[in-house]
Amino acid sequence: MKILVPVKRVVDYNVKPRVKADGSGVETQGVKMSMNPFDEIAVEEAVRLREKGAASEVVAVSIGVTDAQAILRTAMAMGADRAILVQTDLVLEPLAVAKLLKTIVDREEPGLVIMGKQAIDDDMNATGQILAARLNWPQGTFANTVTVGEGWVEVKREVDGGLEIVRLALPAVVTTDLRLNEPRYATMPNIMKARKKPLETIAADALGVDLAPRLETVSVVEPPARKAGVKVSSAAELVEKLRDEAKVI
């Protein structure tokens, strides 16, 4: 079975995002970029499944600028066998991303798609669900545990009330949550080996997909600065402040 793992290039999670001077978005020029952390978890899970014999090949795919090749090389250093870059300079919404991913899925015919539940740049948490709908495949979102059997995948999901276990017929789409695994570090020998692994580049325009945006960003602003907290000397003083200043009791 082949596993397809979409990965996204985002501002590194250790970097404090800065809003552009014109308020049109988040500044990315001269900013450290890396693989979306949820997607790292997806790559790790796919590689583990291959190591267990549940999969024969792991293919990483990214949609974005030429520099996204770097995160694909990282995915291959972690263990992915090859990679595909759908190249575009456009800022794409989840619907457009899902459409492009569907064309790659149709071409590659994987038995399983594993991807991060959301990207940390927009937190939309929508691409996996849209992709599953367009493919008409079952989906297991917010995966805490993934088990693959003969013709099925069992997903333990994190839901508001606890955990839910679903069994899906393959092919299927699975989105990963934080507690699924701990991604491995790419070692220097594997980083060197990743340079020799195949990385195919496809122009997004060549896939015949409507990439027109459906949303318009009016402005992007930083959240207001949080007021400093205060210490109280007793429970009575706390109750007084909650009643007289915060007006919550």
Automatic annotation (TrEMBL):
Required co-factors: AMP
Stored InterPro entries: ET-Flavoprotein_bsu_CS (IPR000049), ETF_a/b_N (IPR014730), ETF_b (IPR012255), ETF_beta_N (IPR033948), Rossmann-like_a/b/a_fold (IPR014729)
Top-rank lineage group of the source organism: Bacteria
SUPFAM superfamilies to which the protein is assigned, alphabetical: Adenine nucleotide alpha hydrolases-like
Domain Electron transfer flavoprotein alpha/beta-subunit N-terminal as annotated: residue spans: 23-211
Keyword Electron transport recorded: yes
GO biological process, one term: carboxylic acid catabolic process
Pfam families named among the record's database cross-references: ETF (PF01012)
Keywords annotated in UniProt: Electron transport, Transport
GO molecular function: electron transfer activity
NADP among keywords: no
Family label: Belongs to the ETF beta-subunit/FixA family.
Subunit and partners: Heterodimer of an alpha and a beta subunit.
Role summary: The electron transfer flavoprotein serves as a specific electron acceptor for other dehydrogenases. It transfers the electrons to the main respiratory chain via ETF-ubiquinone oxidoreductase (ETF dehydrogenase).
Protein name, per record: Electron transfer flavoprotein subunit beta
Organism per entry: Brytella acorum
